[in-house]
Amino acid sequence: MSKCPARKKDGSPCTLDAVYADNRCWAHSEHTAENRRKGRSRGGRNRSGSGELTEVKGQLKALIANVLSGAVERGVGAVALQGYGVLLKAFDLERRVRETDELDAKLDEMEKRLELARQGRYGV
């Protein structure tokens, strides 16, 4: 897979893979312009997932479409999809670690409050 030939806003070369038929990445392809515009208009209101996950989903959709259209060879597409599978597992692991850390912090706080309540000093 080749890299996207576009340039970032700061002028540096794009580092993302070119997965669309126009030889561009998700961030620069004409095929995703409308989705990018909608995403910008939502601003910070989309808290359901990270931008990185959204980007990977866009790349996956493009890769699948390119394999089905014949723009990407099946073997290359299969290997790329395996890599994306590993990446998605890493996203899931990262989410679970973050949730576990949050639960540990809440549990620690509850244990402190319980100890203070036992001592009759809760809320002091």
Verbal overview:
By secondary structure, the chain is an all-alpha fold. The chain has a domain at 30-95. It has helices at residues 33-42, 51-69, 74-118. The protein is elongated and about 70 Å long.
Brief rundown of the structure:
Helix content is 60%, strand content 0%. The chain is mainly alpha-helical.
Q: How many strand segments?
A: 0
Strand content: under 5%
* Distance linking N and C termini: 62 Å
Can you give the mean pLDDT?
A: 86
Structural class: mainly alpha
Instruction: Provide the helix percentage.
Output: 55-70%
Write the H/E string, N to C: HHH
Uncertain residue ranges: 44-48
Tell me about the biggest sheet? none
**Principal-axes shape call:** elongated
What is Rg? Answer: 22 Å
Counted by DSSP, the helix tally is 3
Jot down its keywords:
single chain; 124 residues; mainly alpha; 3 helices
Please describe the topology of this protein:
Elements: H1 33-42, H2 51-69, H3 74-118
Helix pairs in contact: 2-3
